[in-house]
Amino acid sequence: MSASISLQRQITVAFLGPRGSYTAQVASNRFGDSVAYSDMPTIGDVIKAVLSRTCTYGVVPIENSTAGNVDATLDALVKATQDATEENKVQIRAEHYLPIHHCLLSNATNKADIKKVYSHSQSIAQTAQWFEANMKGVERIAVASNSAAAILASKEPGAAAICGEQCADMYGLTILERNIEDKKNNTTRFFILGDKHEPSTGSDKSLLYFTVDHRQPGSLVDALNVLKTHKINLTKIDSRPSGGSPWNYFFFIEFTGHVEDANVKAALAEMGQFCLGLLFWEVGRIRGLVLDYGTVSILMNK
To answer: Which InterPro entries does the annotation name (predicted)?
Structure first.
């Protein structure tokens, strides 16, 4: 997804706002100044804007190297794909990795005056050790985004926010501490969402969502062994509660390959024997830290 794309037609990019969020930073890095931007209050709203074609692209966080998956994105992406028609689906078009360096911002000039701290739940998790060592006992409150936290902190005496330093000038806050993340290589992966299909390049990776019959011993192993049989490299696996019966799970896996590749087609067909349902996204071309994405399709076991 090159910068030249934005010159082909006027496009609108939805991101998790308000202005100053890390998601806004990624959107700006990827699309530049020649597009229109629309900030959304929640991750689900970003995905809905793309699904409804109100916006051409959307940017959402998916995973952090310290705190793990952004479950709200996974859940909203699955729901949007399940609810969509064959002609109207959210596509994962690209991913972007952003180093995350948190600051403590406040109207106060001294940390001793701070009684509460606002931030996104991921950022609270990413700075837990720092707060334990430096501001133990201060209340931390999760909100929709880091920039939303900055706005709250700008309006409340004795409040602070964990966010990027760009929020200081935007919202008239003082930077009390820099680089308060627990891991100095703290990095977040973002998805760029759209509605276009990308063909296979021979250097792709994909995301698959499925569940199995939990009453059947070895059902998950059977499903995953299909990838090995077809010489497909599994690169990531996660689980999420199914939302139905307690202790039943859906699984997310990432692997190298594209739905148009013969071995991937064969593997998906064979996995249908072991999986109760499959949702498939092309994750993209393996090109260092910035990847382009392709198609979304739904395969359901009959």
So the answer is: ACT-like_dom_sf, ACT_dom, Chor_mutase/pphenate_deHydtase, Preph_deHydtase
Cα 129–chain centre separation? 23
Which residues are bridge partners to 178 per DSSP? 103
Mean pLDDT within 160-176: 98
Please say which residue of 134, 162, 194 terminates a domain: 194
Residues in contact with 293: Cβ distance below 8 Å, sequence separation at least 6, in sequence order: 91, 92, 93, 94, 95, 191, 192, 194, 198, 281, 282, 283, 284
Are residues 126 and 160 located together in one domain of the fold? Answer: yes
CATH number at residue 160: 3.40.190.10
Residues 118, 141 contacting (CB under 8 angstroms) = yes
Structural domain range at position 139: 103-178
pLDDT band (50, 70, 90) for residue 169: very high
Q: To which residue do tokens 């973002």 refer?
A: 190
Do the Cβ atoms of 158 and 113 come closer than 8 Å? yes
Tell me if 159 sits within 8 A of 153, measured CB to CB: yes
**H helical segments located in the chain:** 5-8, 22-31, 43-51, 71-83, 121-126, 128-134, 146-155, 166-171, 219-229, 262-271
Q: What is the DSSP string of 66-80?
A: TTEE-HHHHHHHHHH
What CA–CA distance (Å, rounded) separates 172 from 150? 9
Residue 127 exposure: Cα atoms within 13 Å on the Cβ side: 31
pLDDT beyond 50 at 300: no
Does 127 score more than 80 pLDDT?
yes
Q: Which residues pair with 63 in a beta bridge?
A: 69, 189
For the ranges 22-31, 124-133, 172-181, 236-245, which has the lowest average pLDDT? Answer: 236-245
